[in-house]
Amino acid sequence: MSTSQDVNATAEQQTETDAPELPPRERVRRRRSSGVVSNDRDFVNALGRGLVVLEAFSATRQVWMAGMEVAQTVGLPKPTTSRLLQALTRLGYLHYSTRRRQYRLGTSVLSLGFAAREPFSLGDLVRPYLKELADTYNVHASLAGRDRLDVIELEVSHSLNTLMTLRLEVGSRIPLAGTATGHALIAALPEAELDYLFSHLKVRHEKHWDEIKASIEKGRREVAEQGYTTASASWNTDINGVAVPLIFPGGSPVYALACGAPARHLPVVKQRAIGQRLLSMTKAIEKQLLDGDIVIDPVDMEKAP
């Protein structure tokens, strides 16, 4: 018995000593091995395994990974890994591309690390555009992503006229349903994801679901017909908005460029003008990426700061 304990203790000490010298895959394997993480009776193995699955994406420095690659990286059985991947995807911590049949980190990872946020290249790319929108139209301009049933602000720019009215900063959340930003994000989702998303939105907005679903469908039609969507008196009874989906090359998750302001500052005519400007901005951003003028590492687009 004592020999077994000595062996485990020695193995743990060697893991801690050798880990910095080991290749990333071996470090991840050792992090989840029973001798390292399971001796503490208060340790929740299922939680630990899920977190190690997330760590696999940074440890290997790969943006996209197939389920088998993740299983091999963390040293878990494929069925176990598959269940963990599905759970993390449903929670928004991973994004699954049906085209690639691979996973990557999702926007929910951002919500865990905003206290230690560092600049990231996606923000550097869109920041000048957001500033132009805020200064030109006196609105709150933002880059946003979806975190489960919410919209999360990833980069923002304020107009002096709306700073005191729209107190939205990086990491702020607004509803996904009933907002122009949310509808732009929903409009770009594949049909396969909509049923799952709608079933959960229906639970959240049960009393007003018919009305809210109608507004979502209106937003989807607007994006399909004119490229952008608008909303009046949405998440706040005095706030109007306009937004456009922003999809980067390579099958990355969907983002949205959006503007919002009190209704008196953002009437319908102004919404339409901003909508057209948002469309031209998304085209300019896509061209910069395709021409290689600016290189966006997809990890940076959803990097846990």
Walkthrough of the structure:
By secondary structure, the chain is α+β, with helices and mostly antiparallel strands. The chain has 12 helices and 8 strands. The strands form 2 sheets. A 6-stranded antiparallel beta sheet has the order 5-4-3-8-7-6, with helices on both faces. Strands 1-2 form a two-stranded antiparallel sheet. Mean pLDDT is 77; it is low at 1-21, 32-38, 115-120 and 295-305.
What's the short story on this structure?
With 305 residues, the protein is of the alpha+beta class. 50% of the residues lie in helices and 16% in strands. It has two domains: 2-105, Winged helix-like DNA-binding domain superfamily/Winged helix DNA-binding domain (Arc Repressor Mutant, subunit A, Orthogonal Bundle); 113-301, 2-Layer Sandwich (Beta-Lactamase), CATH 3.30.450.40.
Helix content class: 40-55%
CATH superfamily of the largest domain: GAF domain
Unreliable segments (pLDDT under 50, ≥5 consecutive)?
Answer: 1-21, 32-38, 115-120, 295-305
How many strands? 8
Structural class call reads: alpha+beta
Rg estimate, integer Å: 22 Å
Biggest sheet character: 6 strands, antiparallel
Q: How would you summarize the topology of this molecule?
A:
Layout: H1 2-18, H2 24-32, H3 34-37, H4 45-59, H5 67-74, H6 78-90, E1 94-97, E2 102-105, H7 121-137, E3 140-147, E4 150-157, E5 173-175, H8 180-187, H9 191-204, H10 209-226, E6 229-231, E7 239-247, E8 254-262, H11 268-291, H12 298-301
Antiparallel strand pairs: 1-2, 3-4, 3-8, 4-5, 6-7, 7-8
Helix pairs in contact: 2-4, 4-5, 5-6, 7-11, 8-10
